[in-house]
Amino acid sequence: MRATPFFACLLACYLVIGCGDDESDSSPSDASKAGSGGSAQLRDVPCTDQSVSALVLFDTPNKAAIKDELHDGDTFESVIDATGGGLTPTQGFVYARFTDDGLRRVDLSDEQAFRSLDWDIAFRRYVIRLNSGVSGPGDVRGARTRPDSDFDSVTELTDDLNFRSEEYFTESCDFVNDSSGLPGGPGTALASFWSYPGCVSMTHNVYVVELTRPKKRHVKLEVQAYYSLAAQRACDATGSVPTPSGAGTLRVKWAFID
Amino acid sequence: MGIHRLKRLAALGACLALAAACSEPRVQRVGLARAEIRPAPGVASAPPRFEAADEVEQLDSPGGFFRVHYTRSGPNAVPLTDRDGDGTPDYVATVARDFDAVLAFYAELGYRRPVRDGEISGDHGGDDRFDVYLLDFPNSADGAYRADDGCDAANSCSGYMLLENDFDGRRYPSLDHAVRLVASHELFHAVQAAYAADASGILHEGTAVWASEAFEAQTGDLEYQAPAYLKQPERSLSQETQGTFDAFTYGSALFFQFLSEREGRDVVRELWERIAADGGESKAWLAALDAVLQAHDSSLADAFAELVVWNLYTGERADPDRGYARGAALPELTERKVEPGFSEDMLRVFPLATRYYALDSRTAQTLSAAALNEPSDALGLLLAREHAGRIELVQRAQRSGPSLTASLELAAGDVLHVAVYNTNAAGSSLRPDLCIGTPQDVASCRAAHGDTTAQPATRDSGGCSAVHGHTRPCVGLLWLLIPLAAVARSRVVRRCTKLSQAPSA
């Protein structure tokens, strides 16, 4: 909010005498501001106009389901309903944060997410964003591990990890496409989790995501499927996908490594 | 790209008559040929394309402008029915005649003809005619215009057409319907290429859907596409999508339909002529449109402000005297439902975009809206009162400093519609704080947002309204808030904005 102290007092008085109400004080974005020590600490996210247009963002939260399964004591397999209303999205991203109890949804609209540090990662269709750079005010960064890495082999931070913030717009806010070959996809830090030989095929790249809140920690992460498991296997093997495909349901395997 | 499926049954009607009225030389077969075809057998052009083994035949259209390329076997085979026994599949003859009819219609509207192969250097399609290839599309598309490399110095470009070979599996009510719809859409892309070399999605797809509607309204493509625009009026008409054109891009045809109904349908041709005169760069189409509208004693900003009102007259609220002639065939605009006391910080209002809100009034009361802390004159705020399913009063807010305010009196059961819009054609979004509710709600909201200017009045005021076909002078009541205590009221005469589409009786 942009209330001056004087008028904040004025509002409080109005509330006391029952002259009005303003429920926006309890909005997630404001809660987020409070939780991060106040809005003064929030970095302004650049290119938000362009993000809203290019990514087709919305101002109501997407409360689609995230389901976790715990494997081997410390590895989660999270299934995210990232369908977003379809290939032409009608809903915003699903925002989430990594916790010791699993991947937890954070109910934010796309607009609110530009002013929130409460989320680490966001999902919609084949786009996964981190809370940094042009995507959010945080400093959550991602690095792709060596091409020969598999999920189990990543057990610690190594010197060759090149952490990236989200930079799918240039400084002049020109759109940066991913390298999938499919036009219109933003070049996010994790965009190489898929390629497009004719369907959304998994590369099985393993990433390390660096979190900063509540303290610096690292998550290893691999996206296992964009379609239903059977459809994904067909896509990965043949370059085409059967219907129905279950498109937009992301299956992500992840674990803290520190 | 092609048009997608349709829901509506259509009659051939007027355009069949038009086709019949054309001179009708006997459909001419020109024999077999396998060379010199752009999506040729064995040529690695982008799909769809002919198979290497396809025997490709040609048929010249009765008017002589088009050459239709087809095959009788394989996945690209056309339906082989030949009721008149002339040796040519009826489908192919229908395609040739329909393309002639569409071409005649666009010529009648004064448009340039598509650039034919003979008007550019090189050999394209085997002769000088405009080529139409009947091919099996592998996806949901069913037609495409593809530009050649051949453009002249004035950015007028040649190209060719791909049309689905049999429309098998497409949900058109009939093959004739499909051909006429896709032909009228895709051929308009060829017409566009005679004016400009580049492609702006909203301009190209929007005017192509509009042209198809103008050719034969019964095909219903405008009604099929426009809901995508009415569902997302907060998206900008001046910002292109990344990647492939989406439904909104096609749905923007409603904007051109609005212009056509407001200014006369020549306005779309005048726009293309202006683009060509400016060098054939269609990316700058909004500046060209503004110039065209200035010549009509209007402007792009004025037109958009009026579009904001027309879009309220859709679905069950349709009123041909105040909005779209066929507004009843459109769905109602998508609005955000709110309650009194609603506020939103730093709303994002893109150029040539509108955010709509609706509030059900459960009692007789005055309701207000204010858009705060945005000094741009391009920001507009409009209130409309819906009574018994009809929009009966439209009122635009007046500016006081960085804020816009208006109020309306509503009866129990009325609906208040609020529109916040941006008449800029480019630039960043405008970011007002928005308050909607009772005058007390809005006063609190304004105070919370640091606004000390005018407060909403308790009667229809704060803007300019129009009722039953006439704009009227407006006298606004300006309330000044003195914190928590006396509210001083002053009456000021405000300059009215023009409500160019005034409601009528």
Large-scale geometry of chain A:
globular
Oligomeric grouping of the chains: heterodimer
In DSSP terms (H or I, runs of 4 or more residues), the helix count of chain B works out at 11
**Sheet with the most strands, sense and barrel status of chain A:** 6 strands, antiparallel
- Cα(first) to Cα(last) distance of chain B is 42 Å
Helical percentage of chain A: 10-25%
Whole-number mean pLDDT of chain B: 81
Largest sheet of chain B: 11 strands, mixed
Largest binding interface between chains: A-B, 35 and 35 residues
Helix residue percentage of chain B = 25-40%
Question: What is the 3D form of chain B?
Answer: elongated
Report the β-strand fraction of chain A as a percent range. 15-25%
CA radius of gyration of chain A is 19 Å
Spatial strand sequence of the major β-sheet of chain A = 1-2-12-11-10-7
Low-confidence stretches of chain B: 1-37, 467-505
Question: Any overview of this molecule?
Answer:
The complex is a heterodimer of chains A (258) and B (505). Chain A has five helices and twelve strands. Chain A has helices spanning 5-16, 28-35, 48-55, 110-113, 229-238, and strands at 66-71, 75-81, 94-99, 102-106, 121-124, 127-130, 141-144, 194-195, 201-202, 206-211, 217-225, 249-256. In chain A, β3 and β4 (102-106) form a beta hairpin. Mean pLDDT of chain A is 85; it is low at 1-39. Chain B is of the alpha+beta class and 505 residues long. Chain B has eleven helices and 20 strands. In chain B, α1 packs across α2. The longest helix of chain B is centred in the N-terminal third of the chain and has 19 residues, at 90-108. The radius of gyration of chain B is 27 Å and the shape is elongated. The model of chain B is unreliable at 1-37 and 467-505 (pLDDT under 50). The chains are: A alpha+beta (258), B alpha+beta (505). The A-B interface holds A 1-4, 7-8, 10-11, 13-15, 17, 19-24, 48-49, 52-54, 56, 59, 88, 90, 111, 175, 177, 182-186 and B 228, 231, 235-236, 239, 241-244, 246-248, 341, 343-346, 348, 350, 373, 428-429, 433, 437, 440-441, 443-445, 447-450, 483-484.
